[in-house]
Amino acid sequence: MSRLVLKSAAELEIMDQANAIVQGILDQLAELIRPGMTTAEIDQFAERAVHAAGATPAFKGYPHRGDGRDFPATVCASVNAEVVHGIPSPHVMLTEGDTVSIDLGVLFRGFYGDGARTFPVGAIADGPRRLLDVTREAMEKGVEQARQGNRVSDISHAVQCHVESHGFSVVREFVGHGIGAALHEEPQVPNFGEPGRRERLVAGMVLAIEPMVNAGAPDVLLSAEDGWTARTRDGSRSAHFEVCAAVTEGEPWVLGRPRVHDVLHGVGR
Description:
Elements: H1 9-32, H2 39-52, E1 56-57, E2 75-79, E3 82-84, E4 99-108, E5 111-120, H3 126-144, H4 152-165, E6 169-170, E7 176-178, E8 185-189, E9 206-209, E10 212-214, E11 220-222, E12 230-232, E13 238-240, E14 243-246, E15 253-254
Antiparallel strand pairs: 1-4, 2-4, 3-12, 4-5, 6-10, 7-8, 7-9, 9-14, 10-13, 11-12, 14-15
Helix pairs in contact: 1-2, 3-4
């Protein structure tokens, strides 16, 4: 059995603040991203904003799994057929019709926030727009299952069913995860699988729910050049959305979003 780390009400409040920083910066990028902008410019803006908020970039210097270089940037910027972990570059300029996934993590008062969105660059075609919409909807379907008493695979199954019902495919090589005082905690949260399996969800768990969805086949390739960037094997476009959701005794709490009511009731103190 994986070791699950439960968060106290006070810790969840800090994580809510950390994720509010992430979501606020992504909101700003939604207004900023435009044709002619480089992914390095996006990264520079995000890094300034993270520091201005009193936080630290979570990804910069993240160790490579093998013998490659540590991740060199504040955001992962993945364009079109790039799935995740794209390295920002002054040589990658966005053009009209592109899509760019921005994944951002921060460390704030000892706890992590993590989120991702895929943005349209100018006007985009109907196909890519539908891919973005379905991926975002799949994330929300997963969040709905982040309830006490459910199991991790209930999240996974909800994501997969929504994606595949629209003719898209779910990436298998990369998954969501627990998050807290470490950026990656147990349990892993795949975006595919049968319901009713894996760890049971209990109040105080926080999960990064992040569908990665391809317009074509699910297979991906890792860049031999930089050791980080994952691309679709068939060259089809990909999309990525992510939020951190806390399991409570009631409704799932998407950290960083405004709350309608106090969902902390019943969380361990």
